[in-house]
């Protein structure tokens, strides 16, 4: 760890800096495919678009990070490695997506480039949730590079070759890449450390922070790359209503399926976001508020059922250990969203959409994701990447300097206070 990680990290960052120096330039002439050139020249517009970028950025760095802090002894890694992935991924994402849109052998970047880079980072962060606690920092760096490469290639195929443009294409790419890569990685990186899993021991702390940030800013996430004007406004409103309806059905379903008739925080923390995932592929379409609410309601129900029944089934029968239940929050609702976008195209709620092209984009995304996921999983199994042993899974002390063993217990806090009052500072854990 002391040698491997610095070598890989420095090598990747130096390489990226060199590539930025050679290819990347500020875009001062043609700033975005969705907006007229004149609008970018106005300072007020630049700052208004930057506010959308800020919302997406908060989701990436705060929302996803704190969503994964439910593990009692893995809080440092949940937030810290999230930051590491995002920092590397946004740089690599700008390069990879820029290579497909070069002008005069240069990559021209603007605020929209930063937003699309954050979108590519989201795929890795969600995948990280599936293998949370079972990978080393070196593996995470490699996973970031490979997944964003697959994402950029698939985006080029769907948007530029198949010409399925707009928000449905972008969200469909994200959803399918997430679904397949997570499944392949989980299957290939099978671990027997499930019984070391300190399941939800940290639920008494403020782990709901990540959920609230993601819930509040998801309308910005779904509308950030939609066409300016009515389409972007529809994306905001559809996501807004879908999340609200989803939350209601999640609370009702959670109480209904629990034997004691009580709410399960695992359902509330995760499944309440399924509406934002499911409506993403058709958020900017004229599906009407009731359509968005219907999608969100169904997504909430199937997400809760997944956490209740599918996760234990995968763990016990197939030995597939999805730490954060990503297949319940992003996988199944993502499939629902893909189906909804095809139905919307068939009903001609948007005359620019073709059901055939939507289906073709779906098939191509699945194929590329299967191949990319298999390659990623096989590479991550290489022994020299330093995957932690079963006994060291879900433990910050393997990679972090942890000075205090405080878990929130009042008795332990009193003992620490007495030790400090006597001048006896506790040693490292």
UniProtKB/TrEMBL annotation:
It is found in: Membrane. The keyword Lyase does not apply. It is a multi-pass membrane protein. Coiled coil: none annotated. One of its GO terms (cellular component) is plasma membrane. GO terms for biological process: ammonium homeostasis; ammonium transmembrane transport; erythrocyte development; intracellular monoatomic ion homeostasis; multicellular organismal-level iron ion homeostasis. It catalyses: methylamine(out) = methylamine(in); NH4(+)(in) = NH4(+)(out); CO2(out) = CO2(in). It holds the Pfam family Ammonium_transp. InterPro entries: Ammonium/urea_transptr, NH4_transpt_AmtB-like_dom, RhesusRHD. The chain crosses the membrane at residues 6-24, 45-68, 74-95, 107-132, 138-159, 171-189, 240-257, 287-307, 328-347, 359-380. Keywords: Ammonia transport, Glycoprotein, Membrane, Transmembrane, Transmembrane helix, Transport. One of its GO terms (molecular function) is ammonium channel activity. The keyword tRNA-binding does not apply. Residues 49-384 form the Ammonium transporter AmtB-like domain. Belongs to the ammonium transporter (TC 2.A.49) family. Rh subfamily. Homodimer. Heterotrimer; a RHCE monomer interacts with a RHAG homodimer. Component of the ankyrin-1 complex in the erythrocyte, composed of ANK1, RHCE, RHAG, SLC4A1, EPB42, GYPA, GYPB and AQP1. Interacts with GYPB (via the N-terminal); this interaction bridges the (RHAG)2(RHCE) heterotrimer with the SLC4A1 Band 3 I dimer complexed with GYPA. This is Ammonium transporter Rh type A.
